[in-house]
Amino acid sequence: MPSRPSSRPSRPTTGTDQGTRLSKASCRPSVECLESILSSRSQTERLGHVIGSLLTGGEVLALIGSLGAGKTALVRGIAAGLDVPPESVSSPTFVLAHEYHGRVPLVHIDLYRLRTGAEAESIGLNDYLDGSIVVAIEWADRFPEWLPADRLEVQLAHRTPTTRSALVTAQGSRSSLLLTRIVRAWQVVRHTPVSRKPARPAGRKAPVR
Length: 209
Fold this sequence. Notes:
The protein is α/β, with parallel strands linked by helices. Helix content is 24%, strand content 20%. It has 5 helices and 7 strands; from the N terminus they run βαβαββααβββα. It has helices spanning 41-53, 71-81, 117-122, 125-128, 173-189; strands at residues 34-38, 60-64, 97-101, 105-110, 134-138, 151-158, 164-171. Strands 1-7-6-2-5-4-3 form a 7-stranded mixed sheet. Helix 1 crosses helix 2 and helix 1 crosses helix 5 (173-189). The radius of gyration is 19 Å and the shape is globular. The termini are far apart.
């Protein structure tokens, strides 16, 4: 992981800068985005896997959504796409940050319990945002002033007890190119049936091992 420098560049203390506000609007004709209905937790993880498989390091993923909207499930999929065992991923609500080592490093941050920008600085958030690390930030809309100008935003919302809506948008040129690849890959993956183990023929018992 990168070394922590003793001094950090100053950042604004409020989120009033229009350039750093997180998007709350739906897709607009002039802006490429991905909108999808996720019918289950596994499909949320599947979207995350698509995203993770296309990451090369240095990307920042701003995850937005209420409690239970699927943010951590999405990160499990992202981790799997980075060759991190998804079962090792858990919400970092109380420890604030988890680090995982896949084909590129992944840092999973949760800002839910933080109240001030100073607290965000205390966990070294600024250090993580400068390097080859993939950074996935839950509750990113709590401190938009700390987010880089180039980022991928994923907004998750409840629809029913089991379904969620996802809106993926990009800020910045690098994230825009990434989003284009995600849109193309998701169009293929979402219509591909999940592979299942073939059923055993009736009347035959599994061999005893």
